Inverse folding.
């Protein structure tokens, strides 16, 4: 698992450019970092150029004043792909055809969310379907074999929309019980009955930050979200990736709220380090969260992506 880009709050905002590599099966393993991210935060990732991960869009500073309209390989300031438009605070997902689908985002000049999307490959970028409504700080996940779901975000943070690639059409998805943005999401396979469960963990709305998780069994005829109280820390702007087995959502880092004793959350402002990742999995349609033993840097609005074992040098 690769973690790259992002920022954290110390006495002021600090960028995190280091590209950490984790062995998800062995928390005690030490892995060499990959080359640094060229820019700060809120980009989309998942493309690979040979053995080099590529990140697209984002911003060059922490004040969200300069959006990026290019894609870059880690460790290089030279762009490798041009986007159709500059994007920050967008959401992206890797598709089965090898394209990175980047959706929405924020126009920092006007403060208006975007409805445009684009498909990015190593050959370039092409326009994608227009979102039913403008979105930024939203989440995106696989929904079923032929569909992807866009979840929450600004400004309408309770809505979801499902895009079906087979019919080239949008439909309304199940509404969230609690509107939220900056959440983690992923489609999981139940380890017992093999049902498909969409999970949305944490996030925020205005000054309210959440530590609960919403679940919908999307393989049911009429899926609806239910809320489950969970014991992980109050998280927003955190990283997430569905594990290779499809049965667990790995998430963590991000922004943490609601702690009078900051040490109780294992958060050290002088280093920006947060010691825990979490693993969410479901059995018999009951989902649980456990803490993993990996040590990672704190980073908000960063990128998490799975990488081949051959790219990792771990001992």
């Amino acid at each position: 698992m690769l973690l790259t880009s992002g920022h954290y709050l110390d006495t002021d905002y600090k960028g995190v450019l280091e590209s950490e590599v984790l062995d998800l099966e062995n928390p005690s393993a030490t892995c060499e970092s990959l080359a640094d991210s060229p820019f700060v935060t809120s980009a989309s990732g998942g493309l690979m150029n040979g053995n080099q991960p590529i990140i697209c869009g984002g911003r060059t500073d922490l004040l969200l004043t300069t959006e990026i309209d290019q894609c870059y390989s880690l460790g290089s300031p030279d762009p490798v792909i041009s986007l159709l438009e500059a994007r920050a605070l967008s959401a992206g997902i890797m598709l089965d055809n090898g394209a990175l689908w980047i959706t929405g985002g924020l126009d920092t000049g006007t403060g208006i969310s975007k409805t445009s999307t684009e498909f990015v490959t190593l050959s370039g970028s092409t326009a994608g379907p227009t979102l039913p409504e403008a979105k930024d700080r939203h989440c995106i996940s696989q929904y079923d074999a032929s569909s992807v779901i866009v979840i929450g975000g600004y400004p309408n943070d309770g809505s979801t929309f499902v895009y079906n690639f087979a019919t080239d059409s949008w439909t309304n998805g199940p509404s969230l019980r609690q509107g939220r943005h900056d959440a983690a999401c992923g489609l999981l396979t139940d380890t017992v009955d093999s049902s498909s469960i969409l999970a949305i963990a944490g996030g925020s709305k205005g000054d309210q930050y959440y530590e609960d998780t919403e679940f919908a069994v999307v393989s049911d005829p009429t899926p609806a979200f239910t809320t489950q109280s969970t014991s992980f820390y109050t998280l927003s702007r955190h990283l997430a990736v569905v594990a290779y087995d499809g049965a667990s959502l790995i998430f963590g880092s991000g922004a943490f709220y609601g702690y009078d004793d900051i040490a109780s959350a294992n958060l050290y402002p002088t280093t920006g380090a947060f010691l825990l990742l979490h693993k969410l999995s479901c059995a018999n349609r009951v989902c649980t969260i456990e803490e993993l033993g990996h040590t990672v840097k704190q980073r908000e609005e960063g990128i998490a992506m799975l990488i081949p074992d051959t790219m990792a040098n771990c001992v």
